[in-house]
Amino acid sequence: MTGVPSTTPARSLASAAARNFLGSAPRWYKLTIVAILVVNPFILLLAGPVVAGWVVVAEFIFTLAMSLKCYPLQPGGLIALEAVIMGLASPDSVFHEAEANFPVILLLMFMVAGIFFMRELLLLVFTKLFVAVRSKLLLSVTFAATAAVLSAFLDALTVIAVVIAVATGLHSVYHRFASERGIDDGHDHSDDELVHDPMRGDLERFRAFLRNMMMHAAVGTALGGVSTLVGEPQNLLIGQLAGWDFVEFFLRTAPVSIPVLIVGLLTTVLLEATGRFGYGARLPESVREVMARWDREQSEQRDARARARLIAQALTAVFLVVGLALHLAEVGLIGLTVIVLATAFTGVVSEHAIGHAFQEALPFTALLVVFFAVVAVIHDQGLFKPVIDAVLAQEGTAQLTLLFVAAGVLSMISDNVFVATVYISEVAAAFEAGAIDREQFELLAVAVNTGTNIPSVATPNGQAAFLFLLTSALAPLIRLGYLRMLWMALPYTITMTATGLLSVAFLLGA
């Protein structure tokens, strides 16, 4: 008697396709994404495009929140693709949003890769810093303040890319030691299988320490980025429409940005002193000893070629800072120059070695373009228009405070560059139409700038630097997911937003 196969070829193929869909993501997550894709057309038919647009925004935020379960590019991309197919945004609108943000795309493609070729120098400097400074509070304030100062003159994404490179390198150094792997051995520092007690406990405490430092640095980029013409992409647009140069932009925003900076750094001190909201984790002594030993070994083994590489990287770093501070070219082009200099003078010549540097940035670049598709939905469906109209209908101080709050809330949902572009365009149109005078226009420009920069620290989707951190290869290593990021950002959001709002209400127009 001929045996009957337990499964038909069609059923076997369907089962394989189901397993392939979103790969190793949990089954419940896969089913949720399928349900979203099935339900969305019915929402459009029954509730209309505006409701469907808001649902798409919420669904995309959900994929960001689940980034540790599945990288958001695939599920978020499917949702965005369906939104375009349903007509909530046109392909031309998506292209326009990407085109408008081309400098950011160029930055991610080249600057992050450029930082990769300077990691040897960065790891050396920060290892010495971590070993030398034993006060966690002092180290935290130093990280936040340094990130703020750098972000005021450079770019927040560049600064966060530097910090990510440092934290990844430090984690790798200790993980190798804890796994008893040699420096030249192949090693996956995301796999804890070879890490045993008591080193496993020290590794978890080290990860908590790195989470603290990354969040302090990320918030620091927002503290500095709000205050200058080159701090964030939207600042340049606002400054151009208002006719402000670098100094005037700083002076105009100072009544809000300086109090927020002070309160932000005081919040860092308070969080480290109290240990609340996941802060207060200290660097384990065993980790400090490993770093010190590794630093000594590297110094002893460093030959003339290695020292020449460090000098070349240091000179490249000087060029990077000067080039960005003086805005010699678009940030992405400066990043490309960094790649050329850092590879040409450090012996990196193979295509494979250069290509490896792009692995970190390109997935996020693709995700950012998907995000621009969601922004196109917001724009084409006018999701923010009722809020904008309600704010501009107000007058005087009420208009300033409401604009700050509205810009802040919308920046928590959408990209702060997009929100700032929409608001400042409407404010400029009102000024040109004679609805507001020059003085009120300048005050509203500051409200837009500070409103989109400060409250947006609440969520990773508010600022590109925060989103880059969340979706970086470092995030799963240090167990930094969306919800944990929300929780750790919450005290900063409360103190900085409250300070910004009070400053707008009582100091800005004074």
Can you offer a commentary on this structure?
The protein is mostly helical and 510 residues long. It folds into three domains: 63 residues, no CATH class; 228 residues, no CATH class; 145 residues, no CATH class. Helix content is 76%, strand content 0%. The protein contains 24 helices and no strands. The longest helix is centred in the middle third of the chain and has 29 residues. The mean pLDDT is 85.
* Main beta sheet: none
Q: Compute the CA-based radius of gyration.
A: 24 Å
Number of H- or I-type helical stretches = 24
Strand content: under 5%
Terminal residue distance: 95 Å
- H/E element order: HHHHHHHHHHHHHHHHHHHHHHHH
Principal-axis shape equals globular
As a percent range, the share of helical residues equals over 70%
Structural class: mainly alpha
Secondary structure: number of strands: 0
The tally of structural domains comes to: 3
Average pLDDT: 85
> Would you identify the regions where 5 or more consecutive residues have pLDDT less than 50?
none
